[in-house]
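Weekly sync, protein design subgroup
Attendees: M.S., D.O., the rotation student, P.L. (late)

Item 1: inverse folding check
M.S. brought a backbone from last month's batch and wanted to see whether the design step gives back something sensible before we order anything. D.O. pointed out we never logged the input encoding, so this time it goes straight into the notes. Structure tokens as presented (336 positions):
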């Protein structure tokens, strides 16, 4: 039987755009390893991310709304899947490498803290050198997964994860697609969640935005995705029209004014930040209570503040609350 991986790599050269990132032209991994006989390198990276512990924990991490009442609000996991779906749709239309796109999308938020950006702000304040979730996502896949061995992902995937934020500059078009898809996903699902939570109404969104972008989640996603595809097709860069860029900027401003700083949605965040700070400071004072994998990092010479941040950032919301309760609330008070 012919080597399936080689056949798939050959098919990429036949079907993908000249601007795509080809699997057999990857810059490789930090540690060389034998190739898989059925999966090209980026497909293999995607599989490694999906099977990682950090990926599974995303289902219990906040996206925007802390502990919402309801089953249909987004979590960090559902956000990640929505980014992946949008990015794959764009990449397929532009004939880019879907496996690379999907691997970057699925891995881009693995380093996010419990309680969303509230947790990130807290760690950024107390951790020596600050804390940035995109850098932590790279740290997760390079050093923390598989008991310190890491996932040994390709350099293209690592680059896309590191540079997925607005200020980032991915080196591949697939990474650029994920960078824009992340923004499209969170603006739209944050609107959807805010409407579900009765923080805003569809008719509250400025008419100049809905007139251009659409009057529903489906219409807005469709408009944004089509704009990127039409502006980028056959080009060596991923673009948005100037009109779409202005609309996205105006939408961002509206969301910050009406949702991201709204007390109804964010009024409890100071408590989450205080909880994360407490956990960080507690384990800074008692590093012997960190698990074995974190002790190994300390033995390798990692800074204590970095390792404690690794531990706290890796917590899910419910685990962070549980640890905080164990440390702060006397157990006798819970017995009746």
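Designed sequence read out in the meeting:
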């Amino acid at each position: 039987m012919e080597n399936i991986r080689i056949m798939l790599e050959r098919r990429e050269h036949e079907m993908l755009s000249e601007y795509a990132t080809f699997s057999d032209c990857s810059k490789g991994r930090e540690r060389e390893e034998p190739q898989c006989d059925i999966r090209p390198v980026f497909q293999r990276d995607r599989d490694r991310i999906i099977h990682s512990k950090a990926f599974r924990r995303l289902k219990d991490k906040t996206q925007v709304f802390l502990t919402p009442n309801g089953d249909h609000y987004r979590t960090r996991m559902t956000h990640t899947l929505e980014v992946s779906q949008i990015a794959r749709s764009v990449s397929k239309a532009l004939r880019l490498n879907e496996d690379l796109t999907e691997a970057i999308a699925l891995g881009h938020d693995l380093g996010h803290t419990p309680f969303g950006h509230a947790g990130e702000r807290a760690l950024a304040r107390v951790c020596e050198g600050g804390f940035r979730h995109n850098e932590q996502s790279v740290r997760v896949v390079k050093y923390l997964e598989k008991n310190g061995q890491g996932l040994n992902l390709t350099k293209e995937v690592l680059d896309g994860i590191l540079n997925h934020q607005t200020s980032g500059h991915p080196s591949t078009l697939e990474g650029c697609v994920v960078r824009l898809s992340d923004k499209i996903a969170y603006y739209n699902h944050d609107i959807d969640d805010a409407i579900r939570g009765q923080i805003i109404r569809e008719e509250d969104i400025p008419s100049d935005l809905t007139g251009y972008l659409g009057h529903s989640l489906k219409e807005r996603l469709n408009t944004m995705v089509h704009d990127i595809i039409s502006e980028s097709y056959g080009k060596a860069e991923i673009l948005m029209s100037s009109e779409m860029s202005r609309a996205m900027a105006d939408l961002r401003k509206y969301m910050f004014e009406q949702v991201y700083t709204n007390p109804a949605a964010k009024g409890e965040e100071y408590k989450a930040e205080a909880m994360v700070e407490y956990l960080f400071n507690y384990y800074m004072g008692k590093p012997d209570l960190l698990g074995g994998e974190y002790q190994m990092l300390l033995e390798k010479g990692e800074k204590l503040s970095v390792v404690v941040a690794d531990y706290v950032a890796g917590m899910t919301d419910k685990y962070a609350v549980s640890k905080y309760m164990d440390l702060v609330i006397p157990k006798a008070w819970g017995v009746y």
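Discussion: DSSP finds 17 helices and no strands in the chain. The chain has one domain: 4-334.
Action: P.L. to compare against the previous round before Friday.
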